[in-house]
Structures are given as C-alpha cells and as structure tokens.
Amino acid sequence: MSDYTTATGHDTTKVQIADGNQLRYWCDSLGCTEAQLRESVQAVGDSPVNVRDFLKTLTERGLF
To answer: Fewer CB atoms inside 10 Å of the end CB: C or N, the chain?
Structure first.
C-alpha cells in the first residue's frame, strides 16, 4: 500500500479490485458496478484517473 491513503486506509493511487473492501470503496467512489469497475481496470489499468475517464467515456456513449 502506498503512502497516499484515505482516513479509512484505502490506497488512492491505484484501483485495487482483488480486495473486497477496496473494490467496494472504488465502486462507491466512482459510482459504478463491480462489473463495470473490473472491465475498466482490465481496459485501462489501475490508475484512478484513467478508470474514471474510461467510465465517463462509456457512460457518454450510452454503453454503461
């Protein structure tokens, strides 16, 4: 885990989907489902900025 964590201990520099708590945190934070988050991380990697942009693009296209 990096030095950049939230008060609850979540690493904010990587979208980690292997841990259930991290998965729920990121789904809540990004406003997406588990399936959407997993697909996004697979497509663009674990950068929160890239994942957020990918989700936004798919939402704008009506795919999510």
So the answer is: N
